[in-house]
Amino acid sequence: MTARDTDWDGVRLHVVTGKGGTGKTTVAAALALALAHAGRKVLLIEAEGRQGIARLFDRPPLPYAERKIAIGPGEAHDGRDAGGDVYALAIDPEGALLDYLQMFYGMRSAGVALTRLGMVDFATTIAPGLSDVLVTGKATEATRRKQPGSATGFTYDAVVLDAPPTGRVSRFLNVSAEVSGLAKVGPVRTHADSVANVIKSPQTAVHFVCTLEEMPVQETIDGIAEIRSVHGMQVGGIVINMARPAVLTRQELKSQPDQAAMAAALGAAGLPDTESLAAELAAEIAEHARHVELEDRERTELEAAGQPIYELPLVVEGIDLAALHRLAAELREQGAA
Questions:
Q1: Which of 72, 190, 238, 319 is 20 to 30 A from 54 via CA?
Q2: CA 72, CA 159: separation in Å to the nearest integer?
Q3: Range of the structural domain that residue 137 is part of
Q4: Residue 186 CB burial class (10 angstroms; 0-12, 13-18, ≥19)
Q5: Is the residue at 286 inside a domain?
Q6: Is residue 271 part of a domain?
Q7: What is the pTM of this model?
């Protein structure tokens, strides 16, 4: 099976968001694996400190350091694996602030001292927008980081940011507005503006993860509208996660089940109380038909947003590294990476 060309050529920072419970972190991890093909190097960043990435890849809790956690898909040539590498980083505001102090002022040791005094927690508590600026700043720094001698000139071919849920992602990404109350001028403002320039550029896309249910779909549509029209950021794809296949065809679902024929078939199979069992099966079919109708309606709502849509199946046995690779293959086949 040959993968399509990616829908996101030129995008280097993939921001993944979604309503809680839709599998946002799982999709971010699968996307990172999908992007890490043919020798590409990808950084997967967790922004919320929940250690969800570590659990998905069956790793110890991630430190504030870029660690290789997986090998991407690739075909073997001359006995060598052509897959790329997935690195991961769990960002915390304290580590990001130390990075910031080192990069702009050469003051890491002073930052460590401030941390011991509790000043970092104090600063991010009284100025919550600063925390988002530091976290998004680390993601954009990794996106822009240069490495002489690499094929692209960059350290990472792509960065995937497992961002906050849809209800908070707009404020999280709108760093210029967040920092305006902290600093009108100066290095903090300059840093925020440089971060915003990357986030609002064509090299960044915000992807939305949802399930085919009313609330996640509505949050996705509202989030897309806000990202697109209010903040001028590039909207990426919509990933329908945990999609359940229809057991029956649409035509079969429209027809009324013949309970007498069902009871006869059940009796021929040697089952007792066939009339009662046939009635229960008919009720199950009716419920399945209602569920499919609801999903079709929600899918139509998402299609109206005008963005590429990708569907990932429900993995009933649970998510492990093998399952992540299967989901990554689905994303690549559908053109997401």
A1: 238
A2: 14
A3: 13-246+299-333
A4: exposed
A5: no
A6: no
A7: 0.86
